[in-house]
Amino acid sequence: MEIKKPTKTYDAVIVGSGAGGGMTAKVLAEQGLSVAIVEAGPFFDPADPVTKTQMRWPYESPRRGASTQRDFGDFDMAWGGWEIEGEPYTQAGGTDFRWFRSRMLGGRTNHWGRISLRFGPDDFRRKDIDGLGANWPISYEDVKPYYDKVDKLIGVFGTNEGLPNDPDGFFLPPPKPRLHEWYYIKGARKSGVTVIPSRMSMLTKRINKERGLCFYCGQCGRSCMVYADFSSGSCLIFPAQKAGGQIDLFVNCMARSVETGPDGKAKAVSYVNKADRREYQIKGKVIVLAASSCSTARILLNSKEDGLGNGSGLIGRYLHDSTGSSMYGFLPALMDRDRYNEDGVGGLHVYSPWWEDNRKLDFPRGYHIEVWGGQSMPKYGHGFNQAEVQRALGITPGGYGKKYKKELRRIYGAFVGMSGRGESVAQYDNYCEIDPNKVDEWGIPVLRFHYKWRDYERRQARHMQDTFEEILTNMGAKILSGKKTAANDYGLNKPGEIIHEVGTARMGDDPKTSVTNGYGRLHEVPNLFITDAATFPSQADKNPTWTIMALAWRTSDHIISELKKMNL
Amino acid sequence: MDRRESIKSLLIGAAATSALFTAAGCEADTTPAGETAAENPFPYEGTRIPEELRRDARLHANAPFFSESERKILDYLADIILPADEQGPAASATGVTDFIDFMALDFPDFQLPLRGGLSWLSRASLQRFEQNDFMALTAGQQLEIIEDIAYLPEDSAEIPEPEVAFFDLLRRLVTTGYFTSKEGIKDLGYKGNAPNLWDGPPEEVLRKHGITGEEEWLSKCVDHDTRNEMAAWDENGNLLT
């Protein structure tokens, strides 16, 4: 394999090629800067017919798509997962944090759920509202112009609803609800739970001549070969390269640290090239970390004793993931369904944004509800819950033969589930640090995690379980997953399992209580920026990707402006 | 633009390299589920990363997990669980035994219960019918044994006996294996994995389920006839095209 060696000093070296790194590379390259991207995984293009998993059938996998090898199954487009051979992490004090990494160009944007939600005005000033955590140093008004630009550049369907904390945007039209989603709509309305069309980044309508339009296979998790969904490669990096932008890709290159000069400025990124296992340095006038929250913290902590730019001691601190809790049931009304293609887009066509006022509740932050179910493509696990269905229907569980086979046909597509995705409260004591006693196979010291949920999150999960039970009951469903109780933390997912980890280098105005300023610029290193979710002081009950991209664009504009003023 | 033209047009552009897919996609309306994959010249291996290929190779090197005589019993039990009927073939004809054999290697926790269960069948055969080969019993004798292990406790919290748990695991694997096979998908009637323009459930389905009076919601949804018109908004985010 040819080893690409860095020979020049780039205007900007960016670590990571996901939502943040891709957006930063695009904006900087479009302004004429020479850009290097350092990516720990190989090159990936969703359009490559050899690697594509889209439109494959379960029987093309010897395990029928089971998740024994890839966490979300054989066809999911994440090369990596919660565990990566040779790249471990450790836990302290009973912590069970799960750290998901995709080692590939585009990172986790290749498989993510494409739920594309803006943070609302309240999400930037939670401390003002409930006294917990920290406010952001910037407001919704600062970010709004960038959300608008991201909407138009990437494309997101949804509807303008005029909701106070779920802002309107520039939406493409949403797909119509599926049948089980109509049942959900009715069930949610009956309980006074807001329900609106979902907001997701697939192209239901043309926004440019380069990208294809959605053909409703429901497989966005496999990454779209016609670029009808958002991924960082297809929508940011490749278009910027095609437009003449100077972006050099250093793939299979595992970043270790940021090197600084005697003037205290960042001057290079050190990395291991996985192909020859040797150490290299790549020089940049500006260095941008967009390696994902925990990787960015790890690089900074490995860059200098006690961490680079870590006068606050907060790098790695305030790590927080979204909460999650789920319930699902069986809808007898959907038995013996007419068969038709209802793949739709990959994921939900309707959702519930947070509808309550936390001041009247016993937990401080909200959540949104995602809905799933219907006549989806059979995959590994199909029929595994038949005994539960039989019990719900009063049939003796088990059996065999023609009767059993007929039962399985009758109940196909009659399941519906809902998952809450909520905001947790960032805690100083939830953090990652360098484990002094362990390195990965590249010789880089690994992360050790400390993480515990609080009652804030448990009570929120209890509210989820109560709500889901009520809505499922309204729908006429029989609950199959049971109702989770205090004994199992109300079904709370383990931290890291929702893959929305943020907060490890939070932004703020005060260098004593934050790592970067409002532009993601390290207080202590003037030419070092962060454009992933490490800078989020709080997380909102929304998925982070849209905000990562809006902030990365904003930071990139700031970098250009500062370069012009000779401030970097 | 009619639907077929529209589907064709959406595959041009970024997918220019996927010429074969384009051809398959345009036949989507007439191709029964499960018939496009055979034309795919790009093997599954292309979708794997090196670590996965190495692991798969290790698994395949140990195959088959089950002996020839064990596989015969598995074939037989698969067809007891899901026999041929007017809508689909018997499970053994759809490759479920190969699938179960692979899963036993891929997820070793399956090995003991499956193997132990097969052994238990021999013991039960000997005890009841003085013949330690389950396959040598009459069909009536075989069913007598199966009938004893084919049902789970009514209470899901109750842990079933090992032989019942064995049959339950086998039932699950046979069920998944069958309904994820080409024939099983057709049997089930899954209509997707084909390019289309989703426009909501069919009218008669909505009527049957009493979904009416939702014009306001539907008025906000996509109109596929204008999907190729470039999106443009006014300053307030109202879509103009």
Could you explain the architecture of this structure?
The complex is a heterodimer of chains A (about 575) and B (about 240). With about 575 residues, chain A is of the alpha/beta class. Chain A has 10 helices and 18 strands. In chain A, the strands form 4 sheets. In chain A, strands 1, 2, 7, 8, 9, 10 and 18 form a 7-stranded mixed β-sheet that branches. Chain A has a 6-stranded antiparallel β-sheet with strand order 6-12-13-14-11-17, covered by helices on one side. The longest helix of chain A has 21 residues, at about 455-475. The radius of gyration of chain A is 23 Å and the shape is globular. In chain A, about 60% of the residues are buried. Chain B has 11 helices and no strands. Chain B has helices at about 5-10, 20-25, 50-60, 70-80, 95-105, 110-130, 140-150, 160-180, 180-190, 205-210, 215-220. Chain B is an all-alpha fold and about 240 residues long. The longest helix of chain B is centred in the middle third of the chain and has 19 residues, at about 110-130. Chain B is about 50% helix and about 0% strand. Classes of the chains: A alpha/beta (about 575), B mainly alpha (about 240). Chains A and B meet through helix 4, helix 7 and helix 8 of A and helix 2, helix 3, helix 5, helix 8 and helix 9 of B.
Question: Summed up, what is this model?
Answer:
The complex is a heterodimer of chains A (568) and B (241). Chain A contains ten helices and 18 strands. Chain A is of the alpha/beta class and 568 residues long.
